[in-house]
């Protein structure tokens, strides 16, 4: 199958080693392209936040941009958790900005400058780690605040007594599935979008290789679709970051207020 | 039928689920717009619930896409 197509849409997800760092036992720990893009995203975020934290009475454009993001997340936390949620706003804000920055950087056309563009969030290892981080914060906060009473999360209010054998089991499964659904959503959404873009790009390349008539007939509609899909992907990048932050805040709400 | 052909057919069948999720996502946003136009004052307060519904509908489509890709790459 792979020998038919000239473009391999999965090649973009390969993690390449940049230089060696150290060994842990038999495992090699190297600085990879994935790590490089995470460092770049962190630096960009740092510059973005430093530039906007001037606390001027009449804010400039940059400060308005930063305050727009912080206000958006703190408003979301306030609406979903209430005043108790203020403590966890920095975590959710960092999570949101980091995921948003990685998603958007992965969409930028760095290939034009000979760089290897790479979407860090298209790897399950990364999104899985972020999801486990959120999930463990939910667990720690839940048990810390409520002790063993936290298990009442699995028995919603108004459960009829004759369903007590079934509802907690379903609630437990839906609780345990949360980190997987959180990680899978972000990972598959980013992977699917990038595979789609590469498939359309390969249509153009294969069309041109088949001759000028086919190249124009296939290439122009594919190019038009790709422009539209790029816009859609930008929307998806934002929505996925927002959904990750939103669901984290909802899960935190379960841990803080029970339900 | 050999395993490769069966995997490819299965991948195609799994991709139907992605289309079904498209109906679900459209339903979520369509219903939201319909009721938001009836009562625009209450619409902004429901945005969180809108995206929860969107996320739930989308996740199922993405899962079927994942199964399709896994089957396709196994056959390819």
Automatic annotation (TrEMBL), chain B:
The chain crosses the membrane at residues 6-29, 50-73. InterPro entries: ATP_synth_F0_csu (IPR000454), ATP_synth_F0_csu_sf (IPR038662), ATPase_proteolipid_c-like_dom (IPR002379), F/V-ATP_Csub_sf (IPR035921). It comes from the Bacteria. It is found in: Cell membrane; Membrane. Keywords: ATP synthesis, Cell membrane, CF(0), Hydrogen ion transport, Ion transport, Lipid-binding, Membrane, Transmembrane, Transmembrane helix, Transport. The keyword Ribonucleoprotein does not apply. GO terms for cellular component: plasma membrane; proton-transporting ATP synthase complex; proton-transporting two-sector ATPase complex, proton-transporting domain. GO terms for molecular function: lipid binding; proton-transporting ATP synthase activity, rotational mechanism. Residues 9-71 form the V-ATPase proteolipid subunit C-like domain. Its main location: membrane. Belongs to the ATPase C chain family. HAMAP family: ATP_synth_c_bact. This is ATP synthase subunit c. It comes from Sphingopyxis italica. The lineage of its organism: Bacteria, Pseudomonadati, Pseudomonadota, Alphaproteobacteria, Sphingomonadales. The gene is atpE.
């Amino acid at each position: 199958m792979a020998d038919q197509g000239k473009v391999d849409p999965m090649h973009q997800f390969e993690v390449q080693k940049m230089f060696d760092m150290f060994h842990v036992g038999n495992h090699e720990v190297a600085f990879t392209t994935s790590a490089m893009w995470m460092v770049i995203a962190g630096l960009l975020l740092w510059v973005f936040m430093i530039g906007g934290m001037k606390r001027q009475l009449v804010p400039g454009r940059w400060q308005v941009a930063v305050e727009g993001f912080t206000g958006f997340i703190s408003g979301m936390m306030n609406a979903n958790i209430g005043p108790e949620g203020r403590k966890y706003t920095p975590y959710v804000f960092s999570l949101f900005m980091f995921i948003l920055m990685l998603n958007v950087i992965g969409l930028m056309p760095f290939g034009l400058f000979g760089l290897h563009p790479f979407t860090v969030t298209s790897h399950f290892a990364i999104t899985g780690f972020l999801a486990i981080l959120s999930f463990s914060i939910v667990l720690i906060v839940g048990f810390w605040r409520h002790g063993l009473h936290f298990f009442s999360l699995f028995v919603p209010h108004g459960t009829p007594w004759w369903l007590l054998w079934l509802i907690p089991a379903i609630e437990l499964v839906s609780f345990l599935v949360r980190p997987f659904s959180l990680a899978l959503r972000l990972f598959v959404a980013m992977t699917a979008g990038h595979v789609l873009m590469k498939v359309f790009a390969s249509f153009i390349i294969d069309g041109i290789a088949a001759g000028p008539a086919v190249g124009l007939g296939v290439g122009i509609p594919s190019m038009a679709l790709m422009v539209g899909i790029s816009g859609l992907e930008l929307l998806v990048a934002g929505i996925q970051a927002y959904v990750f932050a939103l669901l984290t805040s909802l899960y935190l709400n379960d841990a803080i207020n029970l339900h | 039928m050999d395993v490769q052909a069966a995997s490819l057919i299965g991948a195609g069948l799994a991709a139907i689920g992605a289309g079904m999720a498209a109906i679900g996502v459209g339903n979520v946003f369509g219903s939201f717009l319909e009721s938001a136009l009836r009562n625009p004052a209450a619409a902004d307060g429901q945005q969180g619930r809108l995206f929860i519904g969107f996320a739930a509908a989308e996740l199922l489509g993405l899962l079927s896409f994942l199964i399709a890709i896994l089957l396709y790459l196994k056959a390819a």
